[in-house]
Amino acid sequence: MLKGAEDSERIAEFYEYIQDGGVREAFALLVGTFTCLKSVSCRTAKQGKVRSVSVSQGDAWCFSIMPSRKRLLFHWR
Length: 77
Description:
Elements: H1 5-17, H2 21-36, E1 41-44, E2 53-57, E3 60-67, E4 72-76
Antiparallel strand pairs: 1-2, 2-3, 3-4
């Protein structure tokens, strides 16, 4: 589930930023799936110019998805 309405707007901006079609599709599938799951929460992280979607389960941070123009980067804990 998304944490807030501003996250929806920002995630749409991330999606538009991605130039590679396959990367864009992967981002949409990943974030779309996570926002549909009740046990998982997604929110954008404000880290300056870094685009980041934080994925958590309960209070535990699992990983972040960081889209660039041509790839997705993941930060695992």
